[in-house]
Specification:
Elements: E1 5-6, E2 9-10, E3 12-18, H1 29-40, E4 45-51, E5 64-67, H2 72-95, E6 99-103, H3 105-108, E7 113-115, E8 121-123, E9 130-147, E10 157-170, E11 178-182, E12 192-193, E13 195-197, E14 200-203, H4 214-225, H5 235-249
Parallel strand pairs: 3-4, 3-5, 5-6, 6-14, 7-9
Antiparallel strand pairs: 1-2, 7-8, 9-10, 9-11, 11-12, 13-14
Helix pairs in contact: 1-4
The chain binds glutamine.
Glutamine is lined by residues 25, 69-72, 75, 104-105, 163-166.
Length: 250
Amino acid sequence: MGHAILGNVTLNFTVGWLYPDLMNIYGDRGNIVTLCQRARWRGLDARVLEVGKGAAPGVEDVDVFFFGGGQDREQSLIYDDLLETKAVALARAIDDGAVVLAVCGGYQLFGHYYQTAAGERLPGIGLLDLHTEAGTRRCIGDVVVEADSALGLRERTLVGFENHSGRTFLGEGLRPLGRVLKGSGNNGEDGTEGVAQGNLFGTYLHGSLLPKNPHLADLILERALRRHLDPLDDGLELAAHRRIVERELA
Ligand code: GLN
């Protein structure tokens, strides 16, 4: 099957993988494989941009950022680089329509802070109004979530695997990704799991998530591809449209 040709342009689809060497546990890599393969099955030219420590050339071309999980040690190895070299570019990319999928440790660092079990407070980039503090008991096991109906997913549930000590609390007005039907989710108390704020998706679901939730993978793809739908000058088309409305409703 050839590439999606718009005139003579092949549509590129870029996944930006944040800290693949340090923040990648419990099968997180499967999310990268799924996004790229589902894009290729639709004829898109999918590629992965690995975004490690330091300067990050090319992030402005990224359609979907993936940020995987990591143990407290790995999070403490990257949080400062995330703040100093990625936060501004991520905020700009999100404003420009890029999508973010952040899982567990990555999700926690999109908030205001993550306080580890050892009591160390790792500042996050604050693009999500939430905070996380380690509890005494780890939340481990399979999870079933009833997805927020506002997402319009074709399947009502999301499934995955969680393993975290962090308890995440959403700020006022933040919508969770869904409600926990089985498992702990954000904090094991308020029944919420993850967050969905515009194109920013956070979750505790590893496993990996997207291979077992193709409906969420396609929602992320759909949102990301909107970036390529540059506004066109529809003056003529809309004039015809309005003329017909006037005529038919006169
Ligand atoms: N270190 C964090 C915690 O324990 C995140 C763990 C993870 O990414 N699975 O909560």
